[in-house]
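Customer escalation, tier 2.

The customer says the design service returned an amino acid string that "doesn't look like it belongs to this structure." They asked us to rerun it and document both sides in this ticket. The original structure tokens are below, unchanged.
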């Protein structure tokens, strides 16, 4: 199941990275992720309460190398922005 997949018969779940300005928490943009959910589940060591990654997860500087191949070439700037793994239903 990829980050953009049908997890039940009616709902499409999309996962992406949202980022916000550190000095104001202003939303800047969202980067769609093309990654298999099993890879994300392993990375975040999910517990029984969020097996499908519906919660918001902060992305730390040490996570950059993990996300680079899936973030469409985006270069993270942790000095100016806070990043989060998020999902939404379509």
């Amino acid at each position: 199941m990829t980050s953009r997949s049908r997890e039940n018969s009616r709902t499409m779940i999309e996962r992406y990275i949202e980022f916000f300005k550190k000095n104001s928490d202003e939303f800047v943009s969202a980067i769609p992720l093309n990654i298999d959910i099993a890879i994300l589940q392993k990375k975040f060591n999910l517990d029984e309460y969020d097996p499908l990654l519906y919660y918001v997860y902060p992305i730390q500087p040490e996570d950059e190398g993990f996300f680079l191949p899936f973030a469409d070439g985006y270069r993270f700037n942790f000095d100016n922005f806070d990043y989060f793994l998020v999902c939404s239903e379509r």
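Tier 2 assessment: The sequence is consistent with the input. The first strand starts at residue 4 and ends at 6. The first helix runs from residue 37 to 43. Sent an explanation to the customer and offered a walkthrough call.
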